[in-house]
Amino acid sequence: MQAETPSPELTGKAATQDRILQAAMTLFLEAGYEKTTMTQVAEAAGVGRATVFWHFSDKKSLFREAFNRLIDPFRRSLERDYDELPPRKRLLEQVAVYRDFVHTQHSSIEAVIRWAIDKHELRSTVVDTLLDLHQRVVGALIQTVSEIVPEGVAPEPIAVGLMTLLDGNVFLALVDPSKERAGVREASVDAFVAMIPLREGIDR
After folding, report:
1. In this predicted structure, what is the pLDDT of residue 11?
2. In this predicted model, what pLDDT tens digit does every residue of 63-73 receive, in sequence order?
């Protein structure tokens, strides 16, 4: 896989940095952190090794920036405003956005999970970031579920259960790509959502 052409609106130093980051991201995704060298990044980006070090002081800095760029689409999806939607529709939309992100970013998610498992010097950075994003999603689900369920029903176990199903499907998809079984797993999520008790006045 070759590094992508830098965005047309970028010029000069910004374009060079963008090209380096795209080359680094491709190599980190394909080979992992430990097996990627700054020399390889420079060659893939079409720049000198000194240029890479001028923009990024070391491989750690380059990886952190590439990693942040990789997960930025997920961060943006978390920032979407669903407040205008009724809570039941909001929950369905949150689940749909999660699924859509997983489908469109499958290879990136696989790499990030691998980075989180591999024992390299930046593993804690990856894990901490993933846990923070995970908790933000759980928090949003808890808020939505709390507006759906009847008084006296605890929203947190329901939201965490839903998140566990969604996360489990992501991991299983990596080891079991069968479309048929994937469909069954997604149907299980829909069944779980359908079983969430609704307070009076909220339609399914």
Report:
1. 58
2. 999 888 888 88
**∠ CA 20-21-24 to the nearest 5 degrees?**
85
Domains of the chain by residue range: 12-63, 80-194
Residue owning tokens 């999520």: 189
DSSP letters, 154-200, are -HHHHHHHHHHHHHHHHHHHHH---HHHHHHHHHHHHHHHHTS---T
Is 1.10.10.60 the CATH number for 12-63? Answer: yes
